[in-house]
Amino acid sequence: MGDNIYPGGMPNKTEKGRVEAEEIILYQLNRLKQSKAKTYYIPGNHDWNKGKKNGLSHVLNEEKFIEEGLDDHSFIPSNGCPGPVDVAISDNLVLIAIDTQWWLHQYEKSPIRAGDCKEITTVDVIKKLKVILAKNEEKHILIVGHHPLMSKGEHGGFRTLKSHIFPLTNLNKNLYLPLPILGSFYPLYRSWIGNIQDLAHPKYKKMIKDLQTVFEEHKNLIYAAGHEHNLQYYNEGSHHYIVSGSGSKLSDVKKLKSPNFSAKHKGYFKLSYLKNGSILIDSYGIVEGKEKLLFRKRILSLE
C-alpha cells in the first residue's frame, strides 16, 4: 500500500542510505517469494523521498530493484507515472492502481522523457479512470492508492489530548515537555490547513473531490489505501473505503462507530471475493501478542 521503504525510498547506488533501502526491500521480497503469491507494489510519499526534489529518481530506483527481485512486472503504476493501471484479477474482479503521490508531488515527475507516461495531467488521469470504470461496470472493482480519501487519523486531523499538551512527543515519544497553549497551534494547523500530506490541504482536498466525483457514477467499488498507521473502514452507500497502514508502526485514530470501524493495532485487511458474488472484508490485528479478527463486513452481492 505504499511507503515500502522508510524514510525516503531508494537512493542512487552511490548515495547514503542505499544499503539500508536494499535491506528493507530484500527482507520483504524473500518472504514474498516464499509465499508464492502474486504481488503488487504501489508507491507512497516516502517512496518518493517524502515528496522531496529527487523523489522521482528514488521511486524509479525502487521499482527497478523490486521488479528485478521478483522477476515480474509487480510495481504499478510504473515509470513514475500516475496511472490508472487496471489488472484483471479474475473474470469478475478488476484491480486499479493509482499513484496518488504523483498527484501531490510538487517537484519533478514523469514524463522525464517523451513517451514515459500517457497520462501527464490530473485531467488525463480522471479521463482514463472513467474509461476503465465504464469498461468494468458490471464487475467488482478494487482501487488502490497510497493516500486515503477519508480518515480520522493523524492525516485526517485527529489529535489526542496528549498531542496538544505534549506536542514534542510527535517528534520523539520521550519528549514530555508540556506546552499546552503553543502545543495546540500545530495540531490545529494540521486539522484546518494541513501540509500537503494531510486531507485538509487544498491540493489533497482537490484530489479527493476529483476521484470521488468519478466514483459516484459507479457501484461495487472498494478503495484501499495506506498512509495512516492504523486500521480504518468506512461504508458510504455502495462504496467501501479501507485504510490499512499499520503493518509496522502505529499512530492515533478516532474511535469510529458501526458500520464504520477503526483500531490502533498493528495489522492488516484481507478481502475475500467468493464464488457466490459476495465479499468478506476482514481486519486482523495483533492483540496481546496474538493475531485476532477485529472486524468483519460481508457484502452480500454485486449491489
Verbal overview:
This protein is α/β, with parallel strands linked by helices. 27% of the residues lie in helices and 20% in strands. The protein contains 7 helices and 10 strands. The strands form 2 sheets. A 7-stranded mixed β-sheet has the order 1-2-3-4-6-5-7, with no helix packed on it. A 3-stranded antiparallel β-sheet has the order 8-9-10, with no helix packed on it. Helix 1 packs parallel to helix 2. The longest helix is centred in the first third of the chain and has 18 residues. The protein starts with 17 loop residues before the first helix and ends with a strand. The mean pLDDT is 89.
What is the count of helical runs? 7
Oligomeric nature of the chains: single chain
Count all strands and give the number.
10
Termini separation: 26 Å
Q: Please bin the fraction of helical residues.
A: 25-40%
General shape? globular
- Strand-and-helix sequence, N→C? HHEEHHEHHHEEEEEEE
β-sheet strand percentage: 15-25%
Calculate the mean pLDDT score and round it. Answer: 89
Main beta-sheet annotation = 7 strands, mixed
Q: Which structural category do the helix and sheet elements fall into?
A: alpha/beta
Strand order of the largest sheet: 1-2-3-4-6-5-7
For the CA atoms, what is the radius of gyration? 19 Å
Low-pLDDT stretches: none
